[in-house]
Write a structure and sequence with these properties.
heterodimer; A: 34 helices; B: alpha/beta; Purple Acid Phosphatase, chain A, domain 2; six-stranded mixed sheet; 11 strands
Chain lengths: 686, 191
Amino acid sequence: MYLLCTVGSVYIKSKEAPAKDILKDLVEMCRGIQHPLRGLFLRSYLSQVSRDKLPDLGSEYEGDAETVSDAVEFVLQNFTEMNKLWVRMQHQGPAREKEKREKERSELRDLVGKNLHVLSQIEGVDLDMYRETVLTRVLEQVVNCKDEIAQCYLMDCIIQVFPDEYHLQTLETLLGAFPQLQPSVDIKTVLSRLMDRLSNYAASSAEVLPEFFQVEAFAKLSNAIGKVIEAQDDMPVIGVVTLYSSLLTFTLQVHPDRLDFVDQILGACVTKLSGKGKLEDSKSRKQVVALLSAPLQKYNDIDIALKLSNYPHVMEYLDNGTKKEMASVIIQSIMKNKTLISNSEKVEALFELIKGLIKDLEGNLQSELDEEDFHEEQNSVARLIQMLHNDDPEEMLKIICTVKKHILAGGPKRLPFTVPPLIFNALKLIRRLQNRDENVAEEDTAATPKKIFQILNQIIEALSSVPVPEVAMRLYLQCAEAADDSDLEPVAYEFFTQAYLLYEEEISDSKAQVTAIHLIIGTLQRMHVFGVENRDTLTHKATGYSAKLLKKPDQCRAVYACSHLFWVDDQDSIKDGERVLLCLKRALRIANAAQQMANATRGSGGSVALFIEILNKYLYFFEKGVTQITVASVQSLIELITNEMQGENATPDPTADAFFASTLRFIQFQKDKGGAVGEKYEAIKV
Amino acid sequence: MVLVLALGDLHIPHRAPDLPTKFKSMLVPGKIQHIICTGNLCIKEVHDYLKTICPDLHITRGEYDEETRYPETKTLTIGQFKLGICHGHQVIPWGDLDSLAMLQRQLDVDILVTGHTHQFTAYKHEAGVVINPGSATGAYSSITYDVNPSFVLMDIDGLRVVVYVYELIDGEVKVDKIDFKKTTASANSAH
């Protein structure tokens, strides 16, 4: 028979007889070989050898009576017969060798598929012929053969070899075949591949898009999927989700502006998932995450995802762990695109979506998460809070209140991460309000600094449940400064009171106290809103705390820092030289005491560094013209230091030496300036 | 020529979500020999990111830093210059140049780099130069209104240091430069 085929092909070449007749004869004669394997190979040979001799358009074998239809007819017949043989292989031999047979079949499938390939190569097969003849016949064979392996492979083959435009135009016919296939065929994979191909086709150029609209591709695909899912009632969840995922990709590519389509897909997903409870296996979960991530990646704008009403419903079916994972994906998308979220409804919707990160969901064990991961998670929420913004103060305040509501439900572990960013967001708002035109009527608006401060107070108070007194204290001081800028004396005083209370009652670590004191003094030094009484009270307390620090050097430094509380350059009412001197003298006493202690415990003098620091402070106020700081006092301090450094008990201290040297250089430098400054320093002998 | 990046007060994530994109694209790994950071990063992720730009990272502690073990002050020598770093919340009054000069004398350094005020300054006085690189993210500050993101790049070459300040103003990066030579007696205020 092989010989016959070869002869036949030569015969065609010689053109002594019409190609179509020879081909017809050959294809019929091959029927003589009914053994599946041999028949397959024979027909494959026939196909190969006849390939270039088909009476195709423009080929040399075309004639009046011989047309493309004949070529098509030939290939179709060959195909049909080959498929029959192929399918027959399934049923040959004992049942126990089924697996072996199936493997064999799988290796041979390309032989059958080749015919389809040949069909696709025939020039004369245009859309109409494809639609009328080729597709119908092929599908007929595929459906009728009722063989799972064949159907799966061939459907896939059809999709792969024929051009996408054809598929679009014959979509209904093609999709119509699916429900007729054997139930065990993996339709979802084939359908997914079809949709992926169409998506890529749509992506290839904008000109093809109108075709999609014209054939109502979305509607057809969506219906087809619906039918398939209905027909295969026991399709596993992952199958359903995969199908909808592919459809979603397709829709995002072809109809990006049709949010209603996207929402529809999500809705269909929800309906199908609704009987099943939370997803159990990780593959399904991954697929759902991919499904939900697709709109985020496509639109790069969280606003759009928030508009999809079914989006949160799909998320409901994820278990808590995956919900958090999805929440992280959402936050990353926002951070990457730097989208600002601009109104309280969107914020509300967003925080609902990410609620897995914001608070403990039922059944969620906090101990699951490694500490570092937890920090990372909460820090990403903190960063997210920075992305909420609206220029309109009223709306901004609403946003702040919405966030406050959510984070206060977060529990003590989360508050230290989520509260500070919210506070600073609010402080930024207050500053914007200050910059605003003073004439804007305040009675009707909710967004006044005063009201915002009240809210801030409530939020910081929540930190006491954690507790994190150091953070809370810093936030109170920040608010105090902001209240100072807004000229709200009672509010500022209240914040200071809270800060002081925390210092007294909660901050007991020495190192923490030193930093805290510096922050208190530094903040207080800048306040201008306080009246004399209030300021006195707060200052008195601050100096008291300073003197009570544990280590003498810390005490000394804090006390001389307090000297600045009594002399503020830009506030004439705060220029009390007497109190400045008192502070510095007190600092000196403490430095002396520290020196003596060092002598007593270590047998040698401690460092003179403190004295040099105090000397510098003397010089600072001397420079400012504080009359109580006399030349004599400066001079005696210099002598004291010199004596200490040269004394018998002195421990060599290069740092202190250098410091003293540079201080003396400074004095000399001032002298050299001449003029009024030079005169002032003239009297100091170095 | 030694390039030293000086920056600080990023306050990520409490006051800012991230460094400005334009800054990030400029800070390419491998071009800078040292990084000086005044503090208030505030989280480890920022520390790790800075390390990728240059492994020689020197940080001092800001009052909001998560890592409490950074030192209060630090000194290092680069070429002919002694540099000192301190966040600055410890120096009262905050931002006061005379008090900062005292710290400079105390640390005995040519260049003192401090932060806290979120306001870029570069000031020369008889003991040396005080530089504040501002806030690299433009974070909110109770001390300074209208903070523009900024950082400083110092080019140390022999006895001369050129200070480049990069500021992000209305979405554009603007650069300014100031020259300082060691052992010059003249005092000129740069800002």
